[in-house]
Design goal:
By secondary structure, the protein is an all-alpha fold. The protein contains eight helices and no strands. The chain is 69% helix and 0% strand. Helix 1 packs across helix 2 and helix 3 runs antiparallel to helix 8.
């Protein structure tokens, strides 16, 4: 069994145990498996995942990096899929596989618009409008954020 769950205060970013836990979660390990490898209590890992905003943010960042790399690899297959589609279009069923790769890559029909603008001014305008809208419609007060942060810290520190 791992170390007991103890309350802690973050002083400088994530701990080594937290970074190791994130690496293990990213590759699909369960909270129990992570706890066993890192040498901590399973409850600690679960609390990090559920209540530690910094841990959640770093875990999400790592997941996003892996997801984006996977999407890039999938999109790199599109030219080969199109070539295969061209070769197999007259065969009985070979074109179906190539067509599915194209669909998975997200380039069919309405998804082409998601590529984004090819004009830097339009990109800048879109970003500026998004920021202005977020600032205009942001109703989250500092008091509310502090309250939520306090509740999460309390959950994180409770055994």
């Amino acid at each position: 069994m791992g170390k007991a769950t103890n309350g802690y205060k973050r002083e400088h970013g994530l701990t080594i145990d937290q970074l190791n836990a994130i690496d293990l979660l990213i590759i699909g390990k369960t909270d129990k498996e992570v706890a066993d490898v890192v040498g901590i209590n399973r409850v600690t890992v679960t609390k990090w995942r559920n209540y530690d905003l910094h841990f959640q943010a770093e875990l999400n960042k790592c997941r996003r990096e892996i997801w984006n790399a996977s999407i890039d690899r999938m999109r790199a297959l599109v030219p080969q899929a199109i070539e295969r589609l061209e070769q197999e279009v007259k065969s009985e069923s070979g074109w179906k596989v190539a067509l599915e790769v194209i669909k998975i890559a997200g380039i069919e029909g309405c998804h082409i618009k998601d590529i984004g603008y090819d004009n830097s001014e339009k990109i800048l305008n879109e970003l500026a409008e998004k920021r202005a809208t977020e600032e205009l419609f942001s109703t989250t007060s500092d008091y509310t954020k502090q309250k939520v942060l306090g509740e999460l810290q309390e959950q994180l520190n409770n055994s």
